[in-house]
Every structure is written in structure tokens, then in C-alpha cells.
Specification:
Blueprint lengths: L6 E6 L7 H7 L5 H7 L24 H13 L4 E10 L2 E3 L2 H8 L6 E6 L3 E3 L8 E2 L19 E3 L6 H16 L11 E4 L6 H17 L6 E4 L3 H5 L20 H10 L4 E4 H13 L7 E4 L5 H4 L4 E4 L3 H17 L4 E5 L2 E2 L4 E2 L9 H13 L2
Helix pairs in contact: 5-6, 9-11, 11-12
Protein name: Glycosyl transferase
Pfam family, one: Glyco_tran_WbsX
Organism: Roseburia inulinivorans
């Protein structure tokens, strides 16, 4: 059966509410909004700090904020949110409040799924290879942390079958919700880092499939970040790459010269080149690969002088490239296109309206979605 409509799922960051752990690690009241507000332009013409339209620095421990996001997304044709899921162990989960509010408030009209960011959170100076340093600009030096040797903040521990069952049981009410995104009677669940102990993940997902079938599903439709998993599991797992799929180097001479003098290590990339790489890869994608695009990118709020910034963005270009990507997806008979992101303000990757572009990115995306699905 051919796909009639291509549905856009936008990655969704649930970080915008205070939690005790963030207070402890990065300062009382820390969310990405703190980093976003404090960002200074790194060069002439640099669009920083980014400011939400009407200075809407929302807090996601409030159902009305999520209701507003969902209403806006629906108005502009977004099918659903891919909500980042931070389950570190049976004893530690973080930033789960927005998803739980969404589950509790059935009137919030948005489809959703989980993207499990299965990494340990660490300090920037930690030697841990598979870890995420969430807020480098707000990290403390080793001198401030006399009793910490590893730099580990929240440790990912898959545990045993009992732990896997606890995790599954937590997810089950979400899976049963009619808004949860499913494929062939299977809830879609993305595991962002499939290479992080793939053997344990393989056992866990097989076990979860057994549990899901007992609960009336036909299993779980697993996605992962790259192709390593389907090959290891004999094609049983589907996966989606997350954009930008590759970083195409681009530096304007004057900017390069300026930063060499300032001894800054900001990496500059070109919007058109990044998107052309994505489209080239998309045309060659296997039948088991969902396609993914991005809105824009500038993670200087989080990374300061070590930022990666994609230059020469515009709503018009975004619309042109998304139309091409969705056209490819439709020709390949793929139902979903993933988009980075709905609200990654700390990485400059967001669809939400701001004071510079207003609703322009949303408006152009809706136009593209309507044209492709006409």
C-alpha cells in the first residue's frame, strides 16, 4: 500500500522546567532558557541571543504551556512530537514531567512518541567515552568538585530483566494512549544511541516485544540512530538518522581570520551544503530508513567558544529543502519524516516563533506539508 500522506514528527526537548538535579549541577533555576538568555553575539551580525516571540519563556511543568505548543504545532501541520526520554535506571529518571502531563491531559491534541537518549550525563572533563555533557558553558571545574572523580552526573544503567520490565511498565500507559504514534499496531520507540552496549539492548528489546504482545500489541516498532542495529538484528528493526546527518565544513575567510586571532574554536558550516548532503543521502536511503531534516543550528548558548554554527539559514531555503525531502520520502513510500527540532533553543534548532522570524518557519512548513499531501 502506498503512503497517501507524509507526516512530520518534530523532536521535542522537555528540559524547560526546573528540577533538583539541574539546580545542583548547573545552578539554581537552570534550564536551557538561562543559557539562551545569556548568549552574546560571537561576531557582527550573529543572531544571538535568540528571543521567543512575546518573550514566551515557558515552563513545561505547566500543562497550559504544552497545550499551547500542541495547538501551535497542529495549526501548522505538525503530526506529532518525538519527546526525548531520559531513563537512566530503575532508580533515576529525569525531565519526565512534560510527558506525564501530556499523558494526564487527554485534551492536548498532539500525537507523540519517545526518543530514548540512552547516555550517561557527565561533566565536560569526564573521561567517559559514551556520555553527554549537557551544558558545558555552565559546568564547574574540577577544583569546585573535590569529592567527584569520574565527573558522572546521572549514570545510565540498563540493569537486568527486572529493570527492563520496570522501564516497560512505565512506558505502557503512554503506549496505550490513542495519541501515541504507532505503526502496524506497534508503538514506535526510538533508541538514540544503538551502539551503547548493543548486546544488552538487543536482549532488552526482544523482551519488550514479548511483553508488548501480551498487552495486545504486535510488538514494538523500534527506531535507532543508524544502520548498525538492523544489520545485527536481521532486519527486524527500523531506524531513523537524525540530522544534520553530516557536518559539511564551510568558513568565510574573514570569519575564519577573526576567530584565529581570538583563538576561538567555533566551527562554521553552510546551511545549503548540510542540506544537500542530507538530500543526497536521502535519495540513497534503504527502505528501512526514515528521513530526517533540520530547521537551523547554532549551539553557542550551550557551548560558547566551542560552538557549531550553521550559517546562511532562511525560512525560504528551509521550505525548499523540506519540500525536496518530503517528496523523496513519499516516493520511497515512507510515512514519517523526522525534523530537528520543535524547541531545541539551546542548539538554535527550533520551529517555535521568535522575535526575528516570527512564524515564518512554521508558515513555510505548513505550505510544504499541504502541497506534498494534496
Amino acid at each position: 500500500m502506498s503512503v497517501n500522506k507524509v507526516k512530520v514528527i518534530a523532536n521535542y526537548l522537555p528540559q524547560y522546567h526546573t528540577i533538583p538535579e539541574n539546580d545542583k549541577w548547573w545552578g539554581k533555576g537552570f534550564t536551557d532558557w538561562i543559557a539562551v538568555k545569556a548568549t552574546e553575539p560571537a561576531y557582527e551580525g550573529h543572531n544571538q541571543p535568540r528571543v521567543p516571540l512575546n518573550e514566551n519563556y515557558y515552563s513545561l511543568d505547566c500543562a497550559d504551556s504544552i497545550r499551547w505548543q500542541a495547538s501551535l504545532a497542529r495549526e501548522y501541520g505538525i503530526y506529532g512530537f518525538g519527546i526525548y526520554h531520559y531513563w537512566f535506571s530503575s532508580n533515576q529518571q529525569l525531565l519526565q514531567k512534560p510527558a506525564e502531563l501530556l499523558l494526564q491531559n487527554k485534551d492536548i491534541d498532539i500525537n507523540f512518541m519517545f526518543i530514548w537518549d540512552n547516555l550517561t550525563w557527565k561533566r565536560t572533563w569526564s573521561k567517559l567515552s559514551r556520555g553527554l555533557d549537557w551544558a558545558p558553558n555552565y559546568d564547574k571545574s574540577t577544583e569546585d568538585l573535590e569529592n567527584i572523580d569520574s565527573g558522572i552526573l546521572a549514570e545510565l544503567v540498563y540493569g537486568t530483566e527486572d529493570d527492563w520490565k520496570k522501564h516497560y511498565n512505565y512506558l505502557l500507559p503512554f503506549f496505550k494512549d490513542e495519541r501515541y504514534i504507532k505503526k502496524d499496531n506497534r508503538p514506535i520507540f526510538s533508541i538514540f544511541q544503538p551502539r551503547n552496549d548493543i548486546e544488552t539492548l538487543k536482549k532488552m528489546t526482544i523482551y519488550w516485544n514479548e511483553l508488548a504482545k501480551k498487552d495486545g500489541f504486535d510488538g514494538i516498532y523500534f527506531l535507532s540512530k543508524d544502520s548498525v542495529w538492523p544489520e545485527r538484528l536481521e532486519g527486524k528493526m527500523k531506524y531513523a538518522p537524525f540530522a544534520p546527518t553530516s557536518w559539511s565544513i564551510f568558513m568565510e575567510y574573514k570569519i575564519k581570520e577573526f576567530f584565529a586571532k581570538k583563538k576561538k574554536r567555533i566551527g562554521f558550516y553552510d546551511y545549503d551544503k548540510c542540506w544537500k548532503n542530507i538530500l543526497t543521502d536521502a535519495k540513497k536511503a534503504s527502505r528501512d530508513t526514515y528521513l530526517c531534516g533540520f530547521v537551523r543550528y547554532d549551539d553557542s548558548p550551550r557551548r560558547g567558544n566551542k560552538a557549531r554554527i550553521i550559517l546562511n539559514e532562511s525560512p525560504k531555503k528551509f521550505g525548499e529543502y523540506m519540500k525536496k525531502l518530503m517528496t523523496i520520502s513519499k516516493k520511497q513510500n515512507k510515512e514519517f519524516v523526522f525534523l530537528m527540532a520543535w524547541n531545541e533553543w539551546g542548539e538554535g534548532a527550533y520551529l517555535e516563533p521568535d522575535t526575528v522570524d516570527g512564524n515564518s518557519y512554521l508558515e513555510i512548513l505548513k505550505k510544504v506539508i499541504d502541497e506534498i499531501n494534496r
